[in-house]
User: What shape does this take?
Amino acid sequence: MMPFRAESISYADFTNTLSRYPTLISSLSKPPSSGQAYGLDTLSELDKYRSQVIPDELAKMDKKHLTKEQVELLTKWKLKHGKWRPRLANLVSSNSPSNIEDTTREAFALYSAKQGDPQPALNVLTRLSGIGPASASLLLSVYDPDNVPFFSDEAFRWVTWEEGKGEGWDRKISYNNKEYAVFVEAVRAVRERLEAESGGKSIAAGDVERVGWVIGREEEGAMGGEKKLKGGIKTSTSRKGGSKGGTIPPAPQNSETLATEPPEQPDTGKSQKRKPPTNTIVTSPTTGGEGSQELRRSKRVRNS
Assistant: This one.
């Protein structure tokens, strides 16, 4: 049986997992309220906007850049897709339209000049208010979705998986440039191996990101998002009746509901100390900010 680890998942298992991404996205999409029109509000619509619409629009531009509206909608996608941080949208919205256009234009041009090295471009993008390395990777991913993965929690933990206490789905993430560089290299390794195994079929960085996200969310959902299994990565392709070779412990409840992890920050090159989140209203990402809320105390709000 082919193991389910990122470094050895088979091409067949990889494509099968990727095929479940749209269904999982749909299952997390809350329909609009009565009388509210469908639009760029549900996770499904926002996901299509991120993965298809914006890349198509950028492809038609000479001097490629993002608009303020596009960045705000990408931020909305990020919040619904993962951690819910209600202040983040306000921070991003505080950037002027011209600042966003100029900054993203500079970052995209620099990325092209550096022949695909994302780090210099990330440093430019994190000058924007509310944009840390993870959010910056999202903006850069729509410019080059084949080679730039979004720095999602689930994908990062999956491709850098290690056993042990505090590892696996429990691994803490600092959201800095160093970790993103590790993530990019791990994603590249998965792509190269699968492309060789498949006889040269193209594997996009965004596909590896999506597979990692699906695995994390499915394992979390299988155990109710709260219970955890001890053991290793799943080694069977069969999900019915459990795996024969062990299991991947489910991803822990996201910190959008527990508020246990700090928001990402622009990377300063220095080790960042963790501080508890502050006076933050926290809600479930699957409801887009609706539903029950709980107040968390902290001393300051940081960029994400």
Q: What stands out?
A: The beta strands are 280-282, 294-296. The mean pLDDT is 77. The longest strand covers residues 280-282.
